[in-house]
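Annex B, item 7. Sequence and structure tokens for protein A, then protein B.
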Amino acid sequence: MSAMLAEWTKLRSVPRWIATLVGAAVLTVGLSALGAAGGTTDVNDHPNFVTGPDGDPVADGFGFAHRTVTGDVSVTVHVTSLSPASARAGQGGPDRGTVVPRTPWTDLAAGITLKDGTEPGSSYVSVLLTGTNGVRMQSDFTQDVAGSPSTGDRWLRLTRTGDEVTGFESADGVAWQEIATMTPAAVPDTAEIGPAVLSAPAVYVARGMGGSSMGEHPESAAATFEDVTVTPATDGTWRGTAVTMPITDDLIAMGAAEALPGPVLTERSGTYTVTGSGKVGPQAPDDDVVEAALLGVVAGLMALICVGALFGTSEYRRGMIRTTFTAMPRRGQVLAAKATVLGATTFVLSLVAVVVSFLVAVPILQGSGMAPPAFPTPSLTDAAVVRALVLTALFMTSVTLVALAVGMLVRRSAVAITLTIVLVVLPLVAGTVLPGTSPRWLMYTTLAGGMATLRAKPPTATLAEPWALIGPGAGITVVLCYAAAALALAWWQLRRRDA
């Protein structure tokens, strides 16, 4: 305790250190606000999405063989085949970038859908056999539950009882396995139900040289359904409908306005063939409002590095370190006290700075176009926002402690500051220039990976910033490892070197 009190007295008694710490917070807030005011987006003016039941941006396009049902109902189908039907020429391709791997939301799929009409964006629930992600049950563009990993011949069943809808699957049509029970938000008593087929566009991304570009190849799939039964039996015929997204100028330019090849639904001797194209799932932009509101962190971090390095070297420069070690012979305890005092102070100031940056910059960003419905308004009560703010403050603190440890090792302020800044900035520059997803390993192994803590959204390969390639957990882990290793090395050197 006495060692920490002594180090706290040293820290607060040097006015320029306190001024720099406060300046780091001011820089973080000011440059975050300035950065927020420096860009605009027209994604809400030219959307490639519709809004789902909760108001968030979604994609909703597929081939639908349906009939109208009222009340409780159960539909069973036997999916005997599922394969790509065709690919239409579009912008992008293997020669222009890297293909984005398919997910349960972007895989080709065939199954049964219960939906509030055929308007895109309306409430629904589906049980689907996908091309590579097994059997899935999905609802309202947000819920996704995995069934078996089977991707071959499969029996599927969707049963509505009251407001609840249950999905089942079977390998032989005799022994059935329940997948999940869901309650869609707004499927009315009278709704549309039947076989559905979808195939999301293939997405290609090119990154590098400070930018990124994305293109799509619209694709379609065809599936055959046998033993289609509706219980209780209903009158009427199956109607084939292509549920389609609104066509914008951008989509027309990419060739997405072309008609589907052939009819949506054909029937021969009780076997139904359904062709569909499009994606059903979330469609939010990968750009992150929280990240955009915190970009001033880079400037604040530079000031904190200076304080951390000086806090470690100043006593060597003036020869006061001998007095410190005489009063406290256990040198590791001195280092621990320095790290604790500096770390706690830095974390509190950093957390205040990033929270204020968030509160100031988000309204500015919304005025520049990063607003609903494409970008739902982030809140301090959102778990993802809280995580981003706390981890960003921890990232800034950890890098400051790296600077402290480097200062204790090299004992020269200019060298320590330069080395720590290079450890952060050089990987960022290299990661921005390198092509494709190659910067991912750079982010996994350097301090620059800590920038991933700024993001509230999942990792993505579609953005120019290299830290978006990894998750915040991986980013903060590598920075904490650097801080721990640097402090351990400084402790080892303190014990073996003269003061």
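Protein B:
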Amino acid sequence: MSGTGSGRAAAVTGLGLVTPAGLGTEQTWRRVCSGRSTAAEDPALAGAPVALSCRVEGFEPRRHVGGAQPWRDDRFTQFALVAAREAVRDAALEPRSWDGARVAVVLGSAAGGVATYEEQHHRFLTTGHRVVSPLTLPAFLPNMAAGRLAIDLGAHGPALHTATACASGATAVAVAAMLLDADACDIAVAGGSDAMVTPLCATAFARAGALSRRVGDPAGASRPFDTERDGFVLAEGAGVLVLERAADAAARGAPVRALLAGHGSSADAHHTVAPEPEGRHLRRAAEQALDRAGAARTDVDHVNAHGTGTPLNDRTEGAVLHSLFGSGAAVTSTKGVTGHMMGAAGAVEAALTVLAVQRGTVPPTANFRGADPGARELDLVHGTARARPVGLALSNSCGFGGHNVVLAFVSAATSAG
């Protein structure tokens, strides 16, 4: 892996997570490694065709976001603020003393403040225009998480929003790496956030046939790569990574969790929602990431798969993984525990992949009993977490519209050696 120690590799110096598995990185990691699903019946979705979800439990805006008026921000922005603050603390950075002009923010979201939009539209239709909040647009515009983070952190570099559906968070991390490589910033706060567990979104996904209808068994509903999978479970959350040039991180003695050594992006250009059946362009994104990392397929120890639990996605992705790695890489989908956090998923899973590399542990795929014929030869981790060295790991993300993003992370210890 000659390229992994190059100056182009970005150091991951901080992580922050707000997920159905926990408020914070450590709580999320423990629950994901336990393999216990977070899906449950959701009274707030009563009347929707599928009334189950993976919610972030115990999140209190006044306590966790703080400030006099946390309610001015949509839930997706609140999640992003909390995750970003954790990531910056974890990186041992102090926003009050950094050069804000050299700090970038890149946040992805599939839908922005959709809960605010739904609520205010309902008010407009049922009560009239006088009850519509003047804060509606600032709360629901998709760029507002990035904008609010820039304000909160005093970051005056590029502040960008990425929208590639369920690949949005992973796209943000890749864009952040490119900004560092282009010397547009010295520090990048990057990730994704979404709060799409709403009646309209749940209904729309159910009508599209994307959601699991295992309403009598919520905990068993999200079952990636399982032969009895029937869709994903809608979830919410946020994941944020702090990226720096490896040399800059070393110069300030920063703790480095892993290195982002490569990334690849491609478009299926095939169908609005269905993946290209042969997965040729997802495969190409993975090959790009490995090329940029200076690595070979045989170097890959672990893949955190997109693995939504929908029949088409898992079948296509499983075939791609088998064609690339055979049974040589330990594969998992953490959506079995967390559900599908939409635009946040790629960032959260990138963070979990970093932890797998750093800690030499691959989380299990929840609810897995048996695979389709095309995935039976994959080394799919299930049952319990697996302790094993992880020198190089990939995190796959795919989104409606045919967006594919693959991130390649390597061990900081391996690269230094």
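Comment on protein B: Confidence is low (pLDDT under 50) at residues 2-6.
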